[in-house]
Amino acid sequence: MDKTTDQDSFEYFRQLMRDFSRDRDWEQFHDPKSLLLALVGEIGELAELFQWLPADQAKGLASKPELHQRVEEEIGDIVLYLVRLADVLDVNLGQATMSKFDSVVERFPTDSVKGQAPRKS
Ligand SMILES: [Mg+2]
Questions:
Q1: 115 C-alpha to center of ligand 1: Å?
Q2: Beta-carbon neighbour count of residue 121 at 10 Å?
Q3: In-domain check, residue 17
Q4: pLDDT for res 105
Q5: How far is the CA of 57 from the centre of ligand 1 (A)?
Q6: Is 116 inside any structural domain?
Q7: Helix, strand, or coil here: 106?
Q8: How far is the CA of 113 from the centre of ligand 1 (A)?
Q9: What's the 70 CA to ligand 1 centre distance in angstroms?
Q10: Domain count, the chain
Q11: Distance from the CA of 48 to the center of ligand 1, in angstroms?
Q12: CB of 93 closer than 8 Å to CB of 10
């Protein structure tokens, strides 16, 4: 897998959202607090789809077309707001994500955690 190419997809969406916002003169509304609240709202919309599904059936139910479509839409909303928030905060989302992933890999070595749920330490 090519890390650089995958990080570039964040850059692609960053530029799409930057252009989208500028073209509508919505940059004035895109302060970090407002974007964060919008992001949390979208996460809430995704959570609502799963709210009362039995945990052991959630994955199967979410694969059914109508729920799967709604899950896709909410995840798309979440990513777009996250990309926009990162841009406004001058965070390189690709680099930040890769850096965090690398630290998680180091923190949870395969041999010592395989098959065990992660724990806060
Ligand atoms: Mg939504």
A1: 34
A2: 4
A3: yes
A4: 95
A5: 23
A6: no
A7: helix
A8: 35
A9: 9
A10: 1
A11: 11
A12: yes
Q: Is residue 20 part of a domain?
A: yes
Domain CATH number, residue 44: 1.10.287.1080
Question: How high is the pLDDT of residue 2?
Answer: 66
Exposed e or buried b per residue across 9-32, where buried means at least 16 C-beta atoms within 10 angstroms of its C-beta: ebeebbeebbeebeeeeeeeebee
Q: According to the model, what pLDDT value does residue 9 have?
A: 87
pLDDT reported for residue 118: 82
- Say what the pLDDT of residue 6 is: 63
Q: Report yes or no on 47 lying in a domain.
A: yes
Instruction: Quote the pLDDT of residue 3.
Output: 64
For residue 4, the model assigns a pLDDT of 61
pLDDT digit string, tens, across residues 55-75: 999 999 999 999 999 999 999
Which parts of the chain have pLDDT scores under 70?
Answer: 1-7, 121
Q: How far is the CA of 74 from the centre of ligand 1 (A)?
A: 5
Q: How far is the CA of 91 from the centre of ligand 1 (A)?
A: 23
Structural domain span for residue 22:
3-95
Q: 53 with 61: CB under 8 angstroms?
A: yes
- Span from the CA of 2 to the centroid of ligand 1 (angstroms): 31
Q: Can you read off the two tokens belonging to residue 48? A: 């609502």
